[in-house]
Amino acid sequence: MGTRDLVYRLYERRLxxxxxxxxxxxxxxxxxxxxxxxxxxxxxxxxxKGHRKGADKIFELLDWCRESGVEVVTLWLLSTDNLTRPSxxxxxxxxxxxDTVQTLVAERWHVNPVGAxxxxxxxxxxxxxDAAEVTAHYPGLLVNVAVGYGGRREIADAVRSxxxxxxxxxxxxxxxxxxxxxxxxxxxLYTAGQPDPDLVIRTSGEQRLxxxxxxxxTHSEFYFCDAYWPAFRKVDFLRALRSYAARSRRFGT
Length: 253
Fold this sequence. Notes:
It is a single chain. About 50% of the residues lie in helices and about 15% in strands. It has a six-stranded parallel β-sheet, sandwiched between helices. The radius of gyration is 19 Å and the shape is globular. The protein has a domain of about 180 residues: Decaprenyl diphosphate synthase-like (Undecaprenyl pyrophosphate synthetase). Helix 5 links the parallel strand 3 and strand 4. By secondary structure, it is of the alpha/beta class. Helix 1 packs parallel to helix 9, helix 2 packs across helix 3 and helix 3 runs parallel beside helix 4.
């Protein structure tokens, strides 16, 4: 182990030791951004190299989250906007996502797909649905895999689901309009029944939400990291937890 690695290891231990178990977020959302830029900065012409490296990083992150006591992790792997990219990039990326999800199942993580699955190819949908079914009763950390995900689409889908639900009960539009509140919509989100994210991390230096968990992140704390996702380190993760712990959460007040 080199001197630099040793220094980082010691620093990691100090950071981890400084974190109170009472200040650990229950739900962490991660915008895994910068795979393509990492690939190009590393000299790869094939950006799928970055996506593959980013997929490997997921398993490190989940180990860090489990060690820290995080209960839910939401990983944004593919947005609805990403689906408009050329097939030469999307096809390999979807295959990497499928492989990643199957490995999550093999490693016995509790996998929950979130997104507009109807926008995805059939093979990808089958992998995601099979993962959800097989791991539904696995204990421990819950991993939301956001594929074909967009915050506006999620809210539209939630409202559509709510309307369909009430239509089957014979509720009139007037009756629904009279009774409708935010909790009714929340019950139809992709993450229904889960705690909202306490902390949202975005890598690659971008400082915007981009449509990630628009409804759920109303009271979330945000942490923006300059590192591209494949280069995200445990030190960066622990710094995010330290930053979260140091904040006074006001929940809109």
